[in-house]
Amino acid sequence: MDVDAGHGAALGRALPTQAPAAKDLPLGKRLRSFLSFPGNDEDPVAKLTKTHRGIHPSADAGVLRRSYAIAENMHRGQMRKSGDPYITHPLAVAQICAELGMDTTTLVAALLHDTVEDTSYTLEALHSDFGPEVTHLVDGVTKFDKAFYGKAAEAETIRKMIVAAGKDVRVLVIKLADRLHNMRTLDARSPASRARIATATLDVLVPLCDRLGIQALKRDLDDVVLYHLEPDSYARIDDHVQNRPGWQDYLAQVSSKARSALRRSRVTAEVTARPRHYYSIWKDTVAGGHAVPFDLPRIAVIVDGPATDCYAALGAIHGQWRPVAGRFKDFIASPKNNLYRSLHTTVTGPDGRLVEVLIRTEQMHRYSEFGVATTYRYPKTAETTDPSGADQLSWLKRVLDWQQDTDAAQFLASLRCDLAEGQITVFAHGQAFELPSASTPVDLAYELSPDTGDQCLAATINGRLAPLSSPLRDGDVVEIFAETDEHVAVEPNAPRGPRKEWLGFVKSSQAQMQINRYFDEKNEPGMSIADKVKLGRATIGLTLRKHDRGLASEVPLRRLAEELGYPDLETMLVAVCERNLEPDMVVEQLIALVDHPD
């Protein structure tokens, strides 16, 4: 899914001259025939293997070389719009994954992630060569063909990716690495394409990265999006960052004084400068209406001890410098929706300058940087110290629940809403709930349960009765009153169920979907492409039974799809489902293909 791909004359599908003779050889011999790099004496996988083994010393470098060899061979002849050989893209994606600390399986899938989409390499061949895990990851990031699916292709591709990530979150990690490299090489595209791709990245992929907690990747995505969408602002911030006289000396002074304060309080901790990335500076500059880039000095205090030591460190810092009122946040007691945990405070530092301070344990720091990738980067400690587990991906489970009941366009719109960067935490029935900013009591009611949402009558916010359309604020305590509550009196002729006007103010995907479902329950939801593929496959299976035949594998089906001019088997199966292809005709041709292969 390289958005910059520029294919060679034969779309890169034709193998080098030795390939037709080599394709029937065992995998080992085929790979030896692939492992040649004409005109290049350098080892193209050396940096990748060095990075990977630097984090995972016992990793199998051989499988990386084998997967690179196949990817290089299959993509040979394809070029990117930048003019670089296409293989440079999957190699760069694998390198990004390696720097995150992902496992060998992820790196293999990253190297091969575009082969099924852009070359003649099939999922069956991939499964045979590298097994089911790699196959699932590659299939999860393979796009649907726009020529056959039109405008629905993008939304259906994202839905497919999310469903695949529900089984293995590494699908999303590869997709994010793929998009990061594409964004880094976006200058080869037209201005309109750059704006479109950057906006799509900001709308969906950056929030996805944030939900996965991979801040090390999100910072790079943020900055490259800013570079393409706000080039003038990026240039001003870059000039500001490159020309800050005395900045490093000041941070060194602050860090030294912080270490002294921590030692006096007998808190063992590492103190480092923590400069902010460009997008973060830009966001605060715009939010505050500042004429010049607004960028406070910042340090991080990494405590060597339990979470309680973070509060001891906070006391030491506040004892050294006066804290700024209203600038303290406790994300340890109340983690963010991606389970980010840290203490944030702002103090009046040396020379009266404001300084931001982050305080966290080493474990919290790992998860703040690498999120779901932490369990792959630190596999030995993850089993005993991973605080996230299934909770970190609870939002993904919620998305998977409601994606089944929406069409592709509604799914994508709901996903964008669900991933909204602004989030608030409200409290009800002794529990905390994460909601999009400016959510209302109706949004909260649907978070409690679909029935509570449908039957919501009234609400109190912080003990006071409030309209159901009232925007909630972070920290509000809310009570919902529903028709089914025993102590609520409902007039006999009063209208029941949700109101259509609620759609004008609800913010959460859950509320929007449930309200729409209530009013559209007589209409059948649109079938997804995945559903049509299943139905098409089942239709062919039933038609084959009329002839007392069956399929031992999908190889003949894929060969027939190719002969009929479809880009892949799934597209042909959709055509069968939609009756653009008659199943009897497909089965007749299939039987002829199997019985008379010549």
From TrEMBL:
Domain HD: 86-183
Entry-linked Pfam families: HD_4 (PF13328), RelA_SpoT (PF04607), TGS (PF02824)
TGS domain residues: 420-482
Domain of life: Bacteria
Matching PANTHER family: GTP PYROPHOSPHOKINASE (PTHR21262:SF31), GUANOSINE-3',5'-BIS DIPHOSPHATE 3'-PYROPHOSPHOHYDROLASE (PTHR21262)
Similarity comment: family membership: Belongs to the RelA/SpoT family.
Protein name, UniProt field: GTP pyrophosphokinase
Organism: Paractinoplanes durhamensis
Organism taxonomic ancestry: Bacteria, Bacillati, Actinomycetota, Actinomycetes, Micromonosporales
Gene name tied to this protein: relA_1
